[in-house]
Write a structure and sequence with these properties.
- The chain is mainly alpha-helical.
- The chain has helices at residues 2-6, 29-37, 42-48, 54-68; strands at residues 9-10, 21-22.
- The protein has one domain: Orthogonal Bundle (Arc Repressor Mutant, subunit A), CATH 1.10.10.10.
- It has four helices and two strands; from the N terminus they run H-E-E-H-H-H.
C-alpha cells in the first residue's frame, strides 16, 4: 500500500523547481505538510484544493515518513 502512495509523489525539475510534488501537479509535498502542521484537517485541505485527493495527503505523509527514516543524524558545523 505504501508503495502505491509513494507513486503519487513526482519529482520533475520543470515543476516547482524539482521539489517533490503531488501527481505532477504544482502542489509540493511541503505545502501539504505545512497545512497539516498548521492544524488543518484533511477535509479542510481537500475543500480548499479541489485537485487533491485524500490519498494524496496520505502520500505526503508517507513520503515524509520515509525521509525521516535515517540511521543517524549529524550536527553540521557552522
Amino acid at each position: 500500500m505504501e508503495s502505491n502512495l509513494l507513486q503519487r509523489i513526482t519529482i520533475n525539475s520543470e515543476i516547482c523547481h524539482g521539489k517533490p510534488c503531488i501527481r505532477g501537479l504544482r502542489y509540493p509535498v511541503e505545502l501539504i505538510l505545512e497545512l497539516l502542521s498548521s492544524g488543518m484537517t484533511a477535509d479542510e485541505i481537500l475543500a480548499d484544493y479541489e485537485d487533491l485527493e485524500r490519498a494524496d495527503i496520505f502520500a505526503a505523509l508517507a513520503f515524509a515518513t520515509r525521509l525521516t527514516q535515517v540511521k543517524s543524524i549529524y550536527k553540521v558545523a557552522r
